[in-house]
Design brief:
Distance between the termini: 28 Å
Bound molecules: adenosine monophosphate
Number of domains: 1
Shape: globular
Number of strands: 9
CATH architecture: 3-Layer(aba) Sandwich
CATH class: Alpha Beta
Number of helices: 6
CATH topology: Rossmann fold
Mean pLDDT: 94
Radius of gyration: 16 Å
Length: about 190
């Protein structure tokens, strides 16, 4: 990577990092919640995050952007508009009205299910997955598997925040999907 590119990346990381609010012990003791509502409310930071998220793929053809409920909807909708792609919601079980495909995934306590409409993506369409943050990668892993199950070509998974200590990005890369993150925070 050239020095100029490294510097630009560091500047962007600092800029975005300062727009995120960290709340200790939310929603439970020991968790440092990374609150992106302050970034979303800052016009310049929001635009910068949206522009940077899919920057490596913006020059190529992207058919759909898939966003994970709920913060992935806000970012994914803006990214889809930016790259002139369609938007596909990946939702919690029981929210989508038409025929669905679903997948179970593990949470810290128990399991949950996420769903997509079965006709949301045509086989072979080029799709980018978007969410605000990757921690253990369990949520994104399920989303990637669901997208592949209906025949999507998953170009990348993009997140504003990475918690590298939890290993999520590596989990997604093992599925053969490149991961882009803009900011890292130590710990969880
Ligand atoms: P995971 O499946 O462990 O990668 O968790 C990712 C999902 O949980 C994302 O949808 C995040 O929005 C949310 N999440 C996990 N940890 C945090 C955190 N420390 N702060 C904010 N959101 C989080």
């Amino acid at each position: 990577m050239s020095e100029a590119l490294t510097m630009a990346t560091a500047a962007i990381e600092n800029d975005l990092k300062s727009a995120i609010r960290s709340i200790p012990d939310y929603p439970k003791p020991g968790i440092m919640f990374r609150d992106i509502t302050t970034l979303l409310g800052n016009a310049r930071a929001f635009r910068r995050a949206v522009d940077e998220l899919v920057q490596p793929w913006a020059g190529g053809k992207i058919d759909k952007v898939a966003g994970i409920e709920a913060r992935g909807f806000i970012l994914g909708g803006a990214v889809a508009h930016q790259v002139s792609a369609g938007f596909v919601p990946i939702r919690k079980k029981g929210k989508l009205p038409f025929k669905r495909v679903s997948i179970g995934y593990s949470l810290e306590y128990g399991i949950d299910e996420m769903e997509m409409h079965e006709d949301a993506i045509a086989p072979g369409e080029r799709v980018i997955l978007v969410d605000d943050l990757i921690a253990t990668g369990g949520t994104a892993e399920a989303a990637v598997k669901l997208l592949k199950q209906i025949g999507a070509s998953v170009l990348a998974a993009c997140f504003i925040i990475d918690l590298p200590d939890l290993g999520g990005a590596k989990k997604i890369e093992k599925l053969g999907v490149p991961v882009r993150t803009l900011i890292t925070f130590e710990g969880h």
